[in-house]
Amino acid sequence: MKITINVNGKTHVVNIEPAEMLLDTLRRLGYKSVHRSCESASCSACTVLLDSNPVLSCCVFAATADGRSIETVEGLTSSEKLHPIQKAFLEEGASQCGYCIPSLVMTTKALLAEEPDPTESEIREMLVGNICRCTGYEAQTRAVRKASRYLRGDEE
Amino acid sequence: MLPNVKEFIRPETVQEAYVLLEKNRQATVLLAGGTIVSQMRSSNIETIVDLRRTGLDKIVEKPGEIAAGAMVTAERFRQDRLIADRYGDFFYDSFGLIGNWQLRNMITLGGSIAPRLGWSDITTCLMTVGASLLVYGEDDYQTLCIGDYFQIPASERPIITHIILPDEDYCYAFNRFARSAFDIATLNMGIAMKLSDRRIVSSRVVCGSRPMFPSRMESVEESLVDLSFDEQTPGIVRSLVYDSFSGGSNMIASSEYRNHLASVLAERAVKKIGEIVL
Fold it and tell me: Do B8 and A63 touch (CB under 8 A)?
């Protein structure tokens, strides 16, 4: 079957299998920041924003994304300059192996769009599903707070 | 994995969806949020019927009740103004304990009830507030309580279209225990109490993830009628729940462990209610 999806502002008309997952479609289209990991809704490494809401692309049927917009890390910046969220993650050492970072960055983007100045408990609540096996989440929590300051213009 | 799916159909009405389901129930699955269907392992399923376009994604206030569409997501329901006005923080706090943000953006109310998941926190919460179901099936639309819906054999089950939330003057509390924040509940417990002059007029005590299906503890509810609500009440409820618990064992916990857990969670839930009313 054929679907039309908008990924990071670019429209794709793509043939899919009826039971294909969005994760597979996005990776096939070249959006390799969408990581395959548990494929059982357990780790969130495959998080993308679907109509601005973070979802697990390993459990979203691609057909349900027809006509909708999707955001991945590839869409954060078109130049070599990092997005403020990426910059904050880099500066705070919030990434070690980096495998979970695209999902954390996208979840952070959705969080800061909803709540520009989140409390630490709000950050922890919103990031609870993003499993990282390298860090202790402290650096990532700091990075989200720093990103919020960057995006609000409180820090450069 | 569903290796033999040949059709993905997006009906625009519930009636159309029901006709498609009835064509061949053995080979058809209804799709709501997708978190259950995506994890299915079946070579029998040939048709997926997606309910997303059937208009069941609204929350509407009606005289004496709120009707939430079966396709409303847990997060949307949790954040909804109508729901907050009616139930305060109950659903915001309770649903906040379920899975994570991503999952709550996907899982739907109807999709959580329909598969008859024993561990569903959503079902326990909805039973706690006395929700009923508007369903569409062979007998057209009808209203069923959640317990009655579960009695219908899977091969005859109608489609849940709305969750009907009554306008009642109860206080609510919900607790769950899981091995980790992201795990399914080892046990969950919801308690609703209606008080008048600090006496318990009526109550609902709902225990889920026993590991069987959530059910009301009617003997506890009967024992609580006309009891004075004071500092002793949490302990009384704890004892009553301990004596009346009916559950089972599985790889997550033994029946004895769950029995103890149920009494502790019930006590904590009543303490929460006490913080509201005392």
Answer: yes
